[in-house]
Amino acid sequence: MNEFLTWLLDLVQSVDPVARILLAGLAIMLETSVLIGLVVPGDTVVIVASTAVDSAWSGVALGVAVVIGALSGESIGFWLGRLLGPKIRDSRLGARIGAHHWRRAEVYLRRRGGPAIFISRFLPVLHSLVPLTVGMSGFGYRRFLAWTLPACVLWAGLYIPVAAIAAGTYRELADRLHFAGYIFVGVIVVFLVLLYVAKRLLQRSEAKHLALDGEDDVED
What we know:
By secondary structure, this protein is mostly helical. The protein has 10 helices and no strands.
């Protein structure tokens, strides 16, 4: 296990640092872009890139690239919503997303306002649809950035340090513990499971609020 993991981490670290950072930024830009974000594994790319962080400066550089990439992707979604939103929603590609997801994003934004933009960064599907919906709603771009920027920073602040610290700890233990690789994998798995559970709980909480809001709409 240690031999394979060391080879894999060395392979990632052998990639040119600038190229590695730019690739992570590009991946997260695509991950946060409308519709594209439903198929691009930006989370995975950022975790892999983070294992090569070997100094505070390289971690900061990766974090800046990831935040800029996320903001770029969400900005693309915002301006597509402003310019072509209804056409995208009514297109064949938009139909594959499902009318209930579009409706959910619209109701979510209307009910929550700015906090919906912040929270959506951590919710499946909504993190791609909310920027587009915001653009269609007439929500100001500066106001949109004011809510999404801290969410992007928090997201990067969760993923990058965990993967970097796990990889660094593994390298320190690899020569002394034959099961160090399993510790590394365990840390990453536990982190991903905790994130998944947190997202599911948040998703259920927001779905419950949306259901109650839907009942209020019917009563109105």
